[in-house]
Amino acid sequence: QVQLVESGGGLVQAGGSLRLSCAASGITFSLYGMGWFRQAPGKEREFLARVNRGGSVRDYANSVKGRFTISRDNAKNTVYLQMNSLKSEDTAVYYCAAQRDWGAPTYDYWGQGTQVTVSS
After folding, report:
1. Engineered SS bond to 79: which of 11, 34, 61, 70, CB 3.0-4.6 Å?
2. What is the pLDDT of residues 88-98, one digit of tens each?
3. What are phi and psi of 40, to 5 degrees?
4. How many CA atoms does the CB half-sphere of 18 hold within 13 Å?
5. Which residues share a beta bridge with 46?
6. Rounded to the nearest 10 degrees, how much is the dihedral formed by the CA atoms of 106, 61, 64, 90?
């Protein structure tokens, strides 16, 4: 059974930082690219960042480039999202996802999400 479990969300003031974690089980983690997404109320799900299997390639959405950093620890089967300089518009549910085929348009597995609320 594949599980992706996000943690680290919460309430933070604007300008603050949070680090999200996503622990994977039931997959060979090192064979999957990992991504972070978010969805705010009334909005579509938004891609934020992704990292390849070995951690050497990282892509970011323009909306978070320079503020968010994705990383992974294959020994711990965990991917992280360090979020700095948070803004009220970063308030959303944050999801991690696993992708077997780096070039595919879709992701194979998704977590249940963790809420991030940024107060202004």
Report:
1. 34
2. 999 999 999 99
3. -90, 155
4. 21
5. 38
6. -50
